[in-house]
Amino acid sequence: MGDPYGTVARLRVKPGHLEEVLKVQEERQWAKGAVAWYHYQMDDDPNELYVAVVFKDKASYLDNANQPESHQEYLKLLEHLEGEPEWHDGKIVLTRT
């Protein structure tokens, strides 16, 4: 098994669409190899979310990203966003629980 890997995304939610975004995310199948999934709503802008997803390794992350279901879920999510999310992928180098 490799190092933990994941993504952090910034989402701009359309005004009045937060509940729909959260519903799409809650309905999403738990991705194989995913360890944790966090959604942060910003205090200074409730229409700005940051999402952090942790996978057991990069191979699991890439496998999930390449699933047709992942793309379909992404298209559903885009209906409620002002644009495409900003994605920042990388190896997780420190964790503390």
Helices and strands in order:
Layout: E1 5-12, H1 18-27, E2 34-42, E3 45-55, H2 58-65, H3 68-78, E4 86-91
Polypeptide structure, described:
With 97 residues, this protein is an alpha+beta fold. The protein has one domain: Alpha-Beta Plaits (2-Layer Sandwich), CATH 3.30.70. 30% of the residues lie in helices and 35% in strands. The protein contains three helices and four strands; from the N terminus they run βαββααβ. The chain has helices spanning 18-27, 58-65, 68-78, and strands at 5-12, 34-42, 45-55, 86-91.
In short:
The chain is α+β, with helices and mostly antiparallel strands and 97 residues long.
Task: Give a quick set of tags describing it.
single chain; 97 residues; alpha+beta; Alpha-Beta Plaits; four-stranded antiparallel beta sheet; 4 strands; 35% strand; globular
**Total count of helical runs of at least 4 residues:** 3
What is the alpha-carbon Rg in Å?
Answer: 14 Å
Distance between the termini: 20 Å
CATH fold group:
Alpha-Beta Plaits
Low-pLDDT stretches: none
Structural class label: alpha+beta
Count of β-strands: 4
Average pLDDT score: 93
Strand order of the largest sheet: 2-3-1-4
> Beta-sheet strand percentage?
35-45%
Globally, the shape reads globular
Helix content: 25-40%
Q: Can you name the CATH architecture?
A: 2-Layer Sandwich
Major pleated sheet: 4 strands, antiparallel
